[in-house]
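Researcher: Following up on the earlier apo prediction. This time include the ligand. It's magnesium ion, with the SMILES given after the sequence.
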Amino acid sequence: MTLPFTKSEVNRVDNFPDLNAILATEQRRQGGVWKLLHRSFWGVLAIALLIASARTARVDLLQFWQRIPTVGEWLSRLFPPDFSELPIFFEAIWETLAIAIIGTGCAILVAVPLALLVARNITPVQWLATPLRGLLNLLRGIDTAIFALFFVSIVGLGPFAGALGVAFHTTGSMAKLYAEVLESLPSEPIEAIEATGSDRLRSFAFAVLPEALPGLIGISLYLWEFNVRSSVILGIVGAGGIGYELLVSLKLLDFPRLCTILLLILAMVSLIDAFSAYFRQRLN
Amino acid sequence: MTLPFTKSEVNRVDNFPDLNAILATEQRRQGGVWKLLHRSFWGVLAIALLIASARTARVDLLQFWQRIPTVGEWLSRLFPPDFSELPIFFEAIWETLAIAIIGTGCAILVAVPLALLVARNITPVQWLATPLRGLLNLLRGIDTAIFALFFVSIVGLGPFAGALGVAFHTTGSMAKLYAEVLESLPSEPIEAIEATGSDRLRSFAFAVLPEALPGLIGISLYLWEFNVRSSVILGIVGAGGIGYELLVSLKLLDFPRLCTILLLILAMVSLIDAFSAYFRQRLN
Amino acid sequence: MIVVENLTKSYQRGHFALQNLSFEIVPHTFTAILGASGSGKTTLLRCLLQLTQPDTGKIWFQGRNLNQCSALELRQARTQIAMVAQQFNLVRRRTALENCLGGCLPELPLWRCLTSQFPASLLREGLAALERVQLLEVAFQRADRLSGGQQQRVAIARALTQKARLILADEPVASLDPETAHVVLRLLRSLCDQEGITIICNLHQVELATQYSDRILGIQAGKLVLDVPTHQFSNSDNDIIYRTHLGSI
Amino acid sequence: MIVVENLTKSYQRGHFALQNLSFEIVPHTFTAILGASGSGKTTLLRCLLQLTQPDTGKIWFQGRNLNQCSALELRQARTQIAMVAQQFNLVRRRTALENCLGGCLPELPLWRCLTSQFPASLLREGLAALERVQLLEVAFQRADRLSGGQQQRVAIARALTQKARLILADEPVASLDPETAHVVLRLLRSLCDQEGITIICNLHQVELATQYSDRILGIQAGKLVLDVPTHQFSNSDNDIIYRTHLGSI
Amino acid sequence: TPTTTQNSNNSPEVASLTRLTFGVGPYFPIPNENRKQFEPLFNALAEQVNLPAEVTVADDWIGISEALRSRTLDVAWLGPWGYMLARHNDPSLQAIATVKYKDKPTYYSVLMARADAPFNTLEEAIAQSQQGTKLRLSLADVGSTSGWLVPQAEFKRRNLDPKVVFDYNEGASHAAQAIAVLSNQVDIASDYDRNLDVLTDEGKIDKSKLKIIWQSEPLPNDPIVVRGDFPETIRTQLQEALVNLPPEQAKTLLPKNYTGFITSDGSNYASIEQAGLLVGKLK
Ligand SMILES: Nc1ncnc2c1ncn2[C@@H]1O[C@H](COP(=O)(O)OP(=O)(O)OP(=O)(O)O)[C@@H](O)[C@H]1O
Ligand SMILES: Nc1ncnc2c1ncn2[C@@H]1O[C@H](COP(=O)(O)OP(=O)(O)OP(=O)(O)O)[C@@H](O)[C@H]1O
Ligand SMILES: [Mg+2]
Ligand SMILES: [Mg+2]
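Model: Understood. Below is the ligand-bound prediction.
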């Protein structure tokens, strides 16, 4: 029996409880004015931050609108695409895909246990969750390029260093996003399985995995796709792939070439997206 | 009454139904051999892909293990960090944060309705979902840098172009991840609200939002953090921020400076993570 | 009020959850639907509201064909029909009171739904509905922290707040103790008698059905096997509904 | 079998969901717990299994103090206790049969849980349990596509498959039609009589409690107000459990 | 290192070398172009010492320098500034040769503007920028010798901060610099003389629409660098092979207009080192 207002209040009014009084009591309990102040403090802070950001970023919507018509001209420069280097691009795409597959694959292997340890609703060791979250922040905070460079001194220049860099950096993002999926699962079925005396791992395999799998697959493929797209930075260890080709075209202002690469990347992203959709649908 | 096996089968065995027969029937129905073939096809494909990737990425675990001991030396070069340029870095961080705030903020505004239209379980117009997914792929497939360069031709060099680039590119990722969160929500409460004759938007606001909010906030802050981290690329439109400083330190092989920047980024990532955790906890 | 013609629904090919159901519900009456577990009662109610798409058959509500009307018309019809789902389907992260207000969202501007700032008049209505199901005490408790029976009553209160002309209740007293169950059914009965609301109610306890309803429909394996006024309901009818089911054990 | 000493639990300061409960359950008996909606029955069962942490009080199961034992010991104790939850809590994306096997995971190697490749002997056991609750027909249907009563029976079958010494059933027949309810309670009764399994069962229908149980505990607003052998249960006892509750309407 | 102990030290090291790994930086903007252009030379070099070659093309000096330092790369073609940075990172690196372009071992860094710009020299430009509206200055990537280091050093020498004097931007690619000036995106941009010729040859720009407002002292061309602990004998063999590369072979092995190598011990890069020290990026 949980009473947000005192019992006497309910009894006093008997058959016609004073609903207004109840509402008022509840509002008082929630601390009306204080809460309002609290909220408006955050609101004002957010708005101030937004305005300051807009100033720093030199947002100028007027100019933006006025110059919108020039868009067409810019786009027209992309055409016609230049398909002459297509074989090279395909090779670059495959290299990028391969690095992303190895990197993301390793990241998945490490991220699953990490996510299990970090997700607040299923971690078996609460005290470990916080330091592990720190580790994840570390992995996320250090760029792929820096990891890659670091691994150059171990495995030398080349795609392997790139793949290792991808793996380490991605692990941080992946475990975080995985943990988020796991935390959003309904707790009852998991609890029901744990109530049978089953241990964490088995409960996870039996009750958590089937529910979470679509989400986990979605995230894994998203990060894979992301790694493919963002292979630019791996150029510094000699593992450029398609992202680097894109950057080069951009720097050379070679728009027809850029257009071809964009089309290829788009095709790849769409394929991965379709693949992800197909997979998740099959799980239903 | 759904019978995976024929009714006669149940009746025939009467009080002692032949459980083995039922199991066998079910296995037949699932198409034992065929399914096995199907599965092993995918399995073989996956393994082949993995091996091919490992070759392309020149994975060489032996060398990796042998040279692991050199790690310490590499790390030692990062110390001591060089704090002399701290004020410059703080300015750069703020610039990056500002660009990311504006960019991510705009992306959120656009991504929410897009995600609503794209999430398969709540979209009101199924036929629109597929083309919109294509649009999202497009936004995701085109790199921040390219969008930024594109906007340079509209608003000139500077952080505004960078913020616009961030906004456009992030919209794609955000709407996709949002949609994934929305799709993983239990459908019953949403359905219950729709059964009262309420329209999509109100059902969303009432039944979807409270459940999805922690996930949406987590993703938004993750992408904000991501945009902060990845501001490297904005250097090319003259909106460098901390990411560009990092790249410069790398290019000049200035490790103590690099270390300081890494520490700053780490602090920032941890702060955003803590902020996210605090927010999500308050929602519970 | 509502007319069902040849309603058929099958989830899996060859197995009918509902088969060729036809009946008509007269306004201002209390109809109880009886049937064994898995006989298709929930499916029937869901089909009436078009939450499950029937395979064939027509459903008329107040002269409007719900199968073929536009989305807008369907929404309008649904505001007139309240549903108490078997699994309650409350929004877990909202309080009991807020969940009650879920019944009258169409009246509210969007920003109020978004910010959860509901007008006091509506809150009072919600509280009044909660009071009718004896839940004032937990009005401000989150729905996922309520006991099973409390959740069920919040779902009923939500239906009350909706002020519909027709209430479809799917086993509304399954999780309630006998006293509270009588309170709830008395409430539904009085809504029917005094406010002229039509009620269709799935029930498992035959005594409750005979005590409160005007008419009893019996469903067995998806077929309508019984349709009698309550005062004519006999023990043999009881057998008709549940017997063959038992025979297959 | 199980001894409860001064069990107290409050979710919100000052309001007790359970207050100072003490009782002892003798092995091989069938105990029914009665109480109004919201009186604390579910909380009590959950506290017994340590799914909800009691504030104070001790719980002994087979001579082991469940409040203070290690995680491993708790897991071992839990394998001996099966729970049928009020909301069923099935894994939605698994079939009814797979859900049954959820009761015997500790016996399985991890890879079988991961790949859902369960041994045939176990599958047969699961099917046998489903047959006892008359669900063979939907054994291979996903849990979220079952009707309410079918889900409830799957939860019961899961408890059967667990082969526990003690079954805690939280309103196990709430969503079942009268015939099926009797089948299920007869089943529980026979488990108790023939296999010596101890049963604690929350119920709402007093007739069912008097018909099947050996002993009746009455809970009212978190306090134990009644503890009598079933044959001594009288109408006045009924009033004790539900009366004051009605008085507060 | 004393030459007397060389042989006894080297033989096991030489034996442990199973292949020669070569690295080359972003000399040509297109990655595949880089590989195509440099692979023949490296293959020929490796053949001289009877070892197989493995060539990696990276788009920055960073990776190469790290690989040299960790001894996972043997020989690299670096830029002058990249060489100085790498040697700063690992002093045991050694330059063994400097490449000749049209027979000259040097080139120039330039600052250019549109031909119709109202200033003709850097001084005038600075003066104009300090008085009226700021001129837009674009320097190249910080890893670039001619596009970033040398102009930066020049400003430092004049005690100016380009970020204050100009509307400053850095990080552009060499290929884009001239185009940016011509398309009026910037007023002044840095580049090196050879690149302007190449762009003109390819028909990408019209050189007559540009003017040079500043030119540096002659800068040493790119060095060939070997890692520390590299076997002395092989190093000498490589050096000899490079320096003695016949011009007709150079035509087939080297990119267009490169004519061979002169020997180097790193001392000809002192001016670069000074520039680095001046801008404060070397210590
Ligand atoms: N989504 C679904 N997919 C497949 N089969 C379903 C689905 N929903 C229900 N069924 C099947 O249809 C039949 C009728 O289900 P329904 O939920 O209508 O039964 P019910 O009469 O409400 O039973 P109960 O009293 O147990 O709630 C059952 O056999 C059930 O397994
Ligand atoms: N997680 C929770 N947080 C706060 N209060 C809770 C929580 N769970 C239950 N309660 C409250 O504790 C009281 C007892 O709940 P409990 O679920 O034990 O009742 P019950 O006897 O099982 O009722 P029912 O027959 O309706 O299922 C109720 O008033 C309920 O609102
Ligand atoms: Mg039902
Ligand atoms: Mg309960």
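Model: Residues 245-249 of chain D have pLDDT under 50 and may be disordered.
Researcher: Noted. I'll compare it with the apo version next.
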